[in-house]
Amino acid sequence: MSTPVIRRSTPVLFVQAIEPSLDFWRDRLGFQLTVEVPEGDALGFVILQKDSVEVMLQTVASVESDAPTHAQHFHGDKTWLFVEVEDIDKTAAALEGCEIVLQRRTTFYGAVEIGYREPGGHFVTFAQFAR
């Protein structure tokens, strides 16, 4: 039996409102907004992309409207996202003033890491590996 081909994995982060998270992802980290789906007078779903990394943000209200059966399983859960970066200093400078939840450290597996809570409440750890 052969295993299926996996082409990519993209996290969908559920948030109460998308707009506060745009400063973190788009303005500070340079992600491009590639898809915008309105929900009333605000955004209900977006896709953000930078290089080969893609992140989707969807409001809780949007998922409740779009997929009510799926939404029943959401209980305010938050995601921990691990993102490898080329330059940890440049990343930290871009996120200066954002809430740090994991102080900068060097791990036993050779990464320098720093973790933030993005405005939607998700934990994002950025890591630079020695090359």
UniProtKB/TrEMBL annotation:
Entry superkingdom: Bacteria
Gene3D superfamilies on file: 2,3-Dihydroxybiphenyl 1,2-Dioxygenase, domain 1 (3.10.180.10)
Matches recorded under Pfam families: Glyoxalase
UniProt domain VOC: residue ranges: 7-129
Protein name (record): VOC family protein
Biological source species: Tahibacter harae
Lineage of the organism: Bacteria, Pseudomonadati, Pseudomonadota, Gammaproteobacteria, Lysobacterales
